[in-house]
Each structure stands twice: as C-alpha cells, then as structure tokens.
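Quick log. Single chain, no ligands specified.
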Amino acid sequence: MENTDFQAQLQTYTDSKQRKIKPIIFVGHSLGGSVATLATLWALEKRLRQNSPFCITFGSPLVGDVRLVDTVVRENWGGNFCHVVSKHDIVPRMLLAPFESIAEPLIAVFPYWQVVMANDSKNVPDSFIQDACRTLLNIVLQYTYTVANYGFDSLRELDGVIKRSPYRPFGTYMFCSSEGAACTDNSETILKMLHLTAQSHENASDKTVQDCFSEHIGYGSVLKYVREKSIIGSRIANPDSVSSYEMGISLQLEAIDFGDQNDHARIALQNAGNIEDKHSTNVAKLAIALSEAQCNMAQLEWYKERCEKEYGITYYDSFKKHDKKDINANLRRVKLALFWDDIIEKYKKHELPSDFQSKNKWIYAGITYSRLVEPLDIAHYYCTCKGNGNYLQDGRPTRHKVFQKWMEDKEETHSSRGQKARTKLASLTQDSCFWAHVEEALKELANLKQGQQQELESLEEFENNVTRMINSHSISADVFLEESSFMVWWAEWKEYKKNQCLEWNSPLYKIMESESWKG
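-> predicted structure:
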C-alpha cells in the first residue's frame, strides 16, 4: 500500500496538525472484509497515529495463518477487530477446509456473489452456481465432520493427524442468528465454534444452499434482528440453573440458535471461560513467585559488584573458578533456572495467556535475568566441560533462547517507532551470550596459532562484533577489567596480528589503545 492513493487519503486522517483527530474505522463485507482486515493491519503496523484504527467485517473469510495470529497477539491488536458471522454463511467457514479442496467451486461462486452484491440483486442463482455452492458447502461440511470424529478437545493436536487449513481467526468474533448474538475473542474457541456452527447443516440441501446465499448477502437483516434482541432482551434458555456462569453460557448458545442440545458448543464455551480463569490464576501465582526471584537477582547483582570491586575480576571469570565464595551465587543461579524453566513449560503447554510473551513485565524480567545470569550458565558450562564443548551449539538452555526471541520481537516493534541511542556503556552486556563468544574466540585463536587458517575469518568477525558493541554502548565496563577473559583474548589477538603485520591498525585496536570505550 506504499505510495498509493489509499495512503494519501489516510494521511489526511492521521495528520497530527488537525485540531480534532478523526476516528478511522475500516469496514468490509465478504472479500471486502479481508481487504479491510489487511488495511487495518497495515495501519497498525505503520503506527500512523496515536489512536488505533478499528476494523469491522461482515461475512469475511479467514485471513492469515498462526504466525499472523501470534503477531496480532504479541502486538495487542486483537481488540482492534470485530468479525460478524451469520449462522448459515459459508464464507467465514469455507477456509476451515484446505484451500486446494475448495478452489474449484469457490472460483465459480465468487464472481456471481460479487455481481449480486454490487447490484443488490436477490435473483435465484442458476443451476450451475447452485451446484458449485452445494459442492463448496459439502466439502466444508465433510471436513468439519472429519475433525469432529477426531474430537474437539484441542484442535492443535490434530496437526499432523489430518491435513488442516493453515488459516486461523483473530480478534473478536460475533456469532449472529435471528435469536441474537454471542461474542468470544479466544482463537481456539472461535475455531471450534466455526466448525460446530457449520455442522448445524445436516446436508447441503437446496434450502441450505439458499440460506448460504441469502445470509451472506443479507447482513443488514441479521444486524436488525440482533439490534432488536439487544433492546427487548431474550428469554433465558436454562432458568433453573443455579450458576450465573452456566446461565451466561446458555444465553450465548441460545443467541446463536444452538440451545442446550449441542454439548460440544457448551463445552467449548465452558472451556474458554475455565481456561481464562486458569490463565489468570497462573499469572497471579507467577507474579508472587517473581518477587522472590527478584530477591535472588539482587543477590547476584551484589555478587557481581563484589567480584569487580574486591577482587578486580569479572563475576564471569570468578564463577568459572567455582571457589567457595561462589557457592551462594550458584545456589541462586539454580533457583532462578527452576523458576524460569517452570514459566517456559507453562507457556509451551498453553497454561498462560496467549499474549503473555508480549507483556513488558515478563519480557524485561526475562531478558534482564538472561543478561545477568546467562554468563554464570556459560561459566558453569565451560568449567564442567573442560573446554571440549561449544555452549552456543550444545549447551544453551531453552529459556534463554525463548527470552531472546521475545526481546527480538519487541525490539522489532520498537525499531519501527524509533529508539534513542545509548550514550554510555550498558550496566549488563546486552548480548547475554557474549562470554560464550569469548570462549570460542580463545579456542579459535589457539587453533589459528597452530596453523588452522580457516579460523581467521571467524576471529575477525568477532573483533568486528565487539567494535560494534562498543560503538553502540551495548557492552558493559567489566568486560575491560585487566584480567577478564576478553582482555586475555585481546592481548593474544593483538600480539598475533602485530606479528603478522606491524602496520595493523583496526578500529578495535584504536579503541583499545586509546581506551575510548571509557567515554
């Protein structure tokens, strides 16, 4: 959408000089709903204004795969989308089936639908179009029943069992019928409800085919019914229920004309509520446990400072010796590993909210933990493997990889907004794997001295990376302590390069000789 009339017109709404900021709402029906969704995503990604745009679609096909859903969750964009879906409309459900299975009838049907909607026509389609629509509906029905036969406990578990469509829902879905509407924003629950409501058709009869046509082009009537129901209220499907929660579920089922007879739908809605409650409980417990973890972090920060001020060495080099003074630090390292491994395990098992990894509190807590404690994990690894292993390839715990990914996703978002450059060295080296790179550089330099010239390129790249880290102030001052492993490497590397060429004078050499890293 770059350099288009659309962008120019949108700019008039996003001009910060306007006294009154105009709201931006993208609305689309059918394929237009997909376009509205993509336009909203584009506007959100470009962050053209302070107030986020909002998107409303009617009868829109699914847009995007699980990676897009993860991005929407990570960026907290889900609340910017409302998708209205009618009970019999096949279009929002057609991509439940793999696209290649519906491509032929879809190609036949959509041109007709476009003409009908453009002309506001209610003509009955000819037999060719009806057959194509019937074929499309049968394929989707057959697929949803196949999924049902495997069970609805977790649709994720069907990956690899049957061929599934890659398309996934995101945002809030409003399921509508003549009885009212029910809303949910849980992606897996939405997916289940799309499957279950599709199965309200026993077969693709002529009436069902006609319903698919009329409801897809008749969202005005659907909304009229919903509006009337919201004004006059509706009867309670289960008045004898003693639970307000169960009563709420009954109302939602009745609103989409399911009633109490569909156990799968009831279970799906109940599970959505139970999962949300469990997620909230787990996060609350972890928040309490985080306080204790932060106490252990404070003790390790004190240990780091003590090593630098009292012993004149980095806490990394001290810990690698495994002296008595390091026992307490090791106990706290192990406790913190257990705490964060438990979080990663819960996250992988979907026992935490889907947007957990996008919350600043947990991103920064995790990455601060890695930057402070991973050097100790690296020191422990190289101490126990006696220099025979490679931490980066074989020893790095999953938790650090996960936190790095979360932070990279966050920084990618910040990069589009612009970040302030650092003006002084970081208190903790931003690359939590820095000391592992130093250890590998020491081994590579030893190999190079033995005539293994293939190590030279890797060592020069390491030197360049250190230069970039110093220039960006993303390295901490303790790295330059006289007896640090890095300074040992630097002394040996400088000697080797000078022996090769007396005129050698790299950017890092200039920085180190002038000590300009001190600022």
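Confidence is low (pLDDT under 50) at residues 231-249.
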